[in-house]
Amino acid sequence: MANSGGSISAPVSIYDLQQAFGITSVDLMTLYRTGKINPWSKHKPIRHGDFDVLRPTLESNTYRGEQLDECSKLYCGMSVVVMNESTMKQKGGNRGIKGFVEQFFGTPTNFTKTYEPFTYIIPNTWARLADFDGYTSGAKTTFNLIPNSSTAPEYVDVPDGTPTAFTFKLYHHEAAEYNVMPEDILGAIGSYSDWKLRVEVYDSLRENQDGNGYFYYDSALLSTSQNWVYAECDIPITLPAGFTATMPIVFTPYLYNTQNELAVILPQSKSINIEYRKRPRVINVTSIYNGTEWASPNSMVTLDVNAIRAELSIEKLLNTFAIGDTSAYQGMIRISATYGGVTNYIIGYAVERDGTHTQNHGWVIQPYGGFGDEKYQTVWFQFDNILQGQPIKQGAVANISIELSADYGSSWSMYAGFSVGIGFNY
Predict the structure, then answer these.
(1) What are phi and psi for residue 18, nearest 5 degrees?
(2) Best CA proximity match to 257, nearest among 376, 137, 88, 77
(3) Nearest to 65 by CA among 56, 76, 53, 55
(4) What is the DSSP string of 123-145?
(5) What stretches of 28-77 adopt beta strand conformation (E)?
(6) Cα(310)–Cα(246) distance, integer angstroms
């Protein structure tokens, strides 16, 4: 018997195929039409115009098959969507690669079409038992993406003033002796060493601003498939200063050959639509100095002087972030003090806990170092003359809110506030 654990070896009998595919028919063409043949097995029957080059004398360079249509050609028995990148864009109605891909899959919000690249195309002329010599039913998909349209998030929150990145990784499950590998297909289309993972990024906001919404990012050249992950592509994401709405971005991953400029649509090349939303950097007020002692902002603090010194816990992000009291600093902190229907805004200046000025009157929030690092950094700011000459009586109450600007004072984000009692007269 030549069927062992889903792998078939010569001599191949119809009984082996009946066992491997769970069928009773003895007709090979009936077997082909069952849809049970694993396309990712390197050895299997393939459609080809020349009988003599088929298995069992098939060499690696004969895995290429006949042209199916203007978009697709057979490689390793599968329909591969491959054409010049510029032609692909034209066929997409001048809507980039995503316009072309949508003709196969549908739109990111409505994947109504069922066409899949890398579909097994059954032989249509003859059938031979020997073509199953080396067939492996457990072969795995070679071109896998992290993330893909099924695993990508719908929304991503981007903290104030912090660029982020969206990363695609191309991987395969395992390097099996009888598995179709990236080199088998890409090496037949062009030199394997010339291929990259490319991601088209469509940004409607930038398109509305300057007329160009399509941008392209490349991985390094593909590494050998002996590596589980053989390509990574990082796409930087930066929200415009002062941006407060959501910014939709469409990612379309595919393969690109740097020499012959051919593009290949992947099994997971469905476009991914992600809404990027700006959120403020987290700031917690941990303690208030009222001129005499430190107190919790969660209880009523009575001010003994016309000033507030605040201990703040500020979220660390991926970038260094400097906060000071002039527009020379990207970050600025102010309070809004409201009493009697009048609101005053007071820019804070950096101090030590005891009230002495820090060097250059600013704090530098360090980047977050990842696991094991503190997520927040403690700083102190002083806010003087918070009532600014208003007629205040002892026992009155003022409402205070902390606000942060991450764009040199152009826009401000409000944080949770607190109330203070007035313990002085003037």
Answers:
(1) -60, -40
(2) 88
(3) 76
(4) -SS---GGGGTT-BTT---S-EE
(5) 64-67, 72-75
(6) 32
The chain-wide mean pLDDT, for the chain, equals 81
- Would you say residue 44 has pLDDT above 80? yes
211-250 in b/e burial notation, b at 16+ Cβ within 10 A?
Answer: eebbeebebeebeebeeeebbebebebebeeebeeebebb
Q: Which tokens go with 297? A: 């902002």
Report in angstroms the alpha-carbon separations of 45 from 32, 61, 74, 125: 9, 16, 12, 11
Res 134: pLDDT: 83
347, 366, 350: which is closest to 408 by C-alpha?
347
* Averaged pLDDT for residues 265-292: 85
- In this prediction, residue 117 carries a pLDDT of 77
> How far is the CA of 200 from the CAs of 88, 153, 218, in angstroms?
13, 18, 9
Tell me the residue type at 201: V
> Using one digit for the tens of pLDDT, what is the confidence trace for 367-384?
887 667 888 999 999 999
Q: What is the pTM of this model?
A: 0.72
DSSP-derived secondary structure letter, 60:
G
User: Is the pLDDT reported for residue 5 higher than 80?
Assistant: no
Instruction: Transcribe 372-403 into DSSP letters.
Output: TS-SEEEEEEEEE-SSTT----TT-EEEEEEE
- Span 316-337, average pLDDT: 84
CA distance 329 to 408: 6
Phi, psi (degrees; rounded to nearest 5) at 131: -70, -10
Domains of the chain: 48-122+138-279 (no CATH), 283-422 (2.60.40)
256, pLDDT greater than 90: yes
Arithmetic mean of pLDDT, 397-402: 86
- Does residue 146 contact residue 168 with C-beta atoms inside 8 Å? yes
The radius of gyration computed from the CA coordinates of the chain, to the nearest angstrom, equals: 32
- Non-local (6+) Cβ contacts of 297 within 8 A are 285, 286, 287, 288, 418
> pLDDT of 225-243, one tens digit each?
777 888 999 998 877 665 6
- Rounded Cα gap, residues 253 and 143, in angstroms: 11
Closest Cα partner for 176 from 41, 33, 12?
41
Q: Give the Cα separation of 63 and 61 in Å (integer).
A: 6
**Residue 133 CA neighbour count, 13 Å, CB half:** 12
185-216 pLDDT tens trace: 888 888 899 999 999 999 887 777 776 788 99
